Amino acid sequence: MASDTPENTNKDQQHPQYRGDRQIVNSLLSSEPTDYNLAELARLQIRYKPFPGARDIQRDLEKVLKQWNLTEASLYEKTRAIHQEAKVYKGRGAKRDDWS
Fold first, then answer.
1. pTM, rounded to two decimals
2. Where are the domains of the chain?
3. In a 3-state reduction of DSSP, which class is residue 13?
4. What pLDDT, on a 0 to 100 scale, did the predictor assign at position 36?
5. pLDDT at 9 over 60
6. In the 8-state DSSP scheme, what is residue 11?
7. What is the per-residue pLDDT across 47-82, written as a single tens digit (0 to 9) for each?
């Protein structure tokens, strides 16, 4: 089976949401840590951290964390609090789950 060869097991995959997510990440790189931006950063971190590909997005998400003086744990702590207090995605397709 060709898919089991070592050269194929290490190939990066292309994420189906890459194009739109790339635009969001570019925006985050030049933005401030508002509630919405923190939620977007956490959402994309959850999506891309385990993903076998999109290394540029993964690097840039780490850059944003550093720019905003956050760790992944502190980001998730902040966003849990944000989501408990308000609907961050109200009016932005809030009924659609978009975590994967």
1. 0.77
2. 17-85
3. strand
4. 94
5. no
6. P
7. 999 889 889 999 999 999 999 999 999 999 999 999
Contacts 24+ apart (CB under 8 A), 73-79: 75/38, 75/41, 75/42, 75/45, 76/42, 78/38, 79/38, 79/39, 79/42
How many whole angstroms separate alpha carbon 47 and alpha carbon 88?
A: 18
Q: Are 34 and 21 in contact (CB under 8 A)?
A: no
Residues 6+ apart with CB under 8 A from 53: 12, 13, 14, 15
Helical H segments across 1-100, by residue range = 6-9, 18-29, 35-48, 55-67, 72-85
Q: Which two tokens stand for residue 92?
A: 């932005």
In this prediction, residue 92 carries a pLDDT of 55
Number of C-beta neighbours around residue 52 at 10 A: 11
If you average pLDDT over residues 19-34, what whole number do you get? Answer: 96
